Amino acid sequence: MTEHPSLQPYVDAWTHSVEAISELVQPLVEGEWNRATAVPGWSVRDVVSHVIGLECELLGDPRPIHTLPRDLYHVTDETSRRMEVQVDVRRHHTGAEMTGELEYTVIRRSRQLRNEKRGPEATLRHPLGHEVTMRDLLRERAFDVWAHEQDLRRALGTPGNLDAPGAHVARDVFIAALPAVVAERASAPANSAVVFDVSGPVEFMRTVRVDKEGRATVNGSPSLGPAVTFALDWETYVRLACGRVRPQAVADRVKVEGDQRLAEAILAHFAVTA
């Protein structure tokens, strides 16, 4: 247990997902490590490498000194370049090396989290270089490992844990992003409302309201005559919000009522993570 109870749900969610990843990859044969995932340019091995690499940096391990190949099409900016180093340096590791390093990293990181004394508002340096609070970092890690667990499950054909603790952290992250998606990115008109009705293992209904100044808020109250209503299942919502699928590819799983042009703009800007 951490010393601060408000942080424990994020630690528990992270633990649940990272242990699920470890169980998923433990029995893989070498060929399965090379299966493509929905993360551009990343295989199963690469996703696991990413998880290992970030946790190692949070443990204070030095970043690898490594020069990336120039032909990685999915590396497009400084952030993706920084993320890719931890991935590319492990591309020739065997399955046994990967599972061994993952297990050791999880043990070390779990011990660090159990002994963590810093509070929710304490600031620390994120692996990408910016300052972040302990609460935001642990929320991000819980969300990230759950999202990547789902990437691995889809690649390996082993669905599950769509309602795990990490899924509920992800839901909150997605909902918090909705005002920016609707008002800022999709430019929804003033005095309009957009409803999201999500079904499945994690279900919710939220309304984004844009006021006369163009500012947006989100809550659970229904709206009379919304500009757009989206009805979709939780897994499709996750794939769209994580940028793992194009809206056109799942059009049959997203029911849209109302302003089609605004709906298309919202779906075009729906991804809140890479």
Structural features, described:
By secondary structure, the protein is of the alpha+beta class. It has 2 domains: 5-161, Four Helix Bundle (Hemerythrin (Met), subunit A) (Up-down Bundle); 167-268, Nonspecific Lipid-transfer Protein, Chain A (2-Layer Sandwich), CATH 3.30.1050. It contains 9 helices and 7 strands. The protein has helices at residues 8-25, 30-33, 44-58, 78-88, 95-114, 134-156, 165-185, 234-241, 260-268; strands at 123-125, 131-133, 192-199, 204-210, 216-219, 228-233, 254-258. The strands form 2 sheets. Strands 5-4-3-6-7 form a 5-stranded mixed β-sheet. A two-stranded antiparallel ribbon has the order 1-2. Strand 1 (123-125) and strand 2 form a beta hairpin. InterPro entries: DinB/YfiT-like, Maleyloyr_isom, MDMPI_C-term_domain, MDMPI_metal-binding, SCP2_sterol-bd_dom_sf.
Separation of the first and last Cα atoms: 31 Å
* Main pleated sheet: 5 strands, mixed
Helix-strand category: alpha+beta
> What's the rounded overall pLDDT mean?
95
Rough shape? globular
Q: State Rg.
A: 20 Å
For the record, what CATH class of the largest domain applies? Answer: Mainly Alpha
Uncertain spans, ≥5 residues at pLDDT below 50?
none
Q: What CATH architecture of the largest domain do you see?
A: Up-down Bundle
Count of individual domains: 2
| Series of H and E elements | HHHHHEEHHEEEEHEH
Helical segment tally?
9
Strand arrangement, largest sheet?
Answer: 5-4-3-6-7
Instruction: Find the CATH superfamily of the largest domain.
Output: dinb family like domain
Instruction: Report the β-strand fraction as a percent range.
Output: 5-15%
Number of strands: 7
- Helicity range of the residues? 40-55%
Protein name: Maleylpyruvate isomerase family mycothiol-dependent enzyme
GO molecular function: isomerase activity; metal ion binding
Organism: Streptomyces chumphonensis
Pfam family, one: MDMPI_C
